[in-house]
Design a protein that fits this description.
disordered N terminus, alpha+beta, Nuclear Transport Factor 2, Chain: A, 4 helices
Length: 165
């Protein structure tokens, strides 16, 4: 083999490796979700299914019951314990809505620091008031979860909706 043919063979091999690396880089899939992200994706879906029943007892298993915990919801401004939150949901939603569905969007973010996780997600609320009409609202949800034993429990929550306009 002459010097020119060796050089040509090296250049062709280098070019093929370069093209193969480029194609491989372009077809790589997004990184797989971590086990924690997968766990919270399932939990968030179940959480929204529970709240879609309009029965706070179905969602209660996701919440810590400490008397001094604060929860913010769309209305009213604030609840000072799970017991107060539950009573408020019954008054504002269970008694006034004939149906409701809360659907989380695909933007769940999960961040962990030790035994604390915070999640952020947007969701859509579709409800039918008993008085008639319909309610369609896009909302934001941030929850702070604490690992207690083997369970993750919400120790603080903030639900809000953007102002119209």
């Amino acid at each position: 083999m002459t010097m020119n043919s060796r050089l040509a063979a090296v250049l062709v091999t280098a070019l093929m490796l370069s093209v193969a690396a480029s194609v491989s880089a372009q077809t790589k899939k997004a990184p797989a979700k971590t086990a924690l992200e997968a766990e919270f994706k399932v939990m968030i879906d179940q959480y929204y299914t529970a709240w879609s029943t309009l029965d706070p007892d179905k969602a209660a298993k996701y919440y810590a019951k400490d008397a001094d915990l604060i929860f913010y919801d769309i209305a009213p401004l604030k609840y000072n314990s799970w017991a107060e939150y539950k009573a408020g949901v019954i008054k504002a939603f269970t008694e006034t809505m004939s149906s409701g569905k809360l659907t989380p969007m695909d933007d769940l973010k999960v961040t962990q620091r030790g035994n604390i996780v915070w999640t952020t997600v947007t969701f859509h609320l579709s409800a039918k008031p008993k008085a008639g009409g319909a309610m369609e609202v896009d909302c934001r949800h941030t929850a702070i979860w604490e690992k207690r034993g083997t369970k993750w429990l919400i120790v603080h929550e903030h639900v809000s909706a953007p102002l119209p306009g």
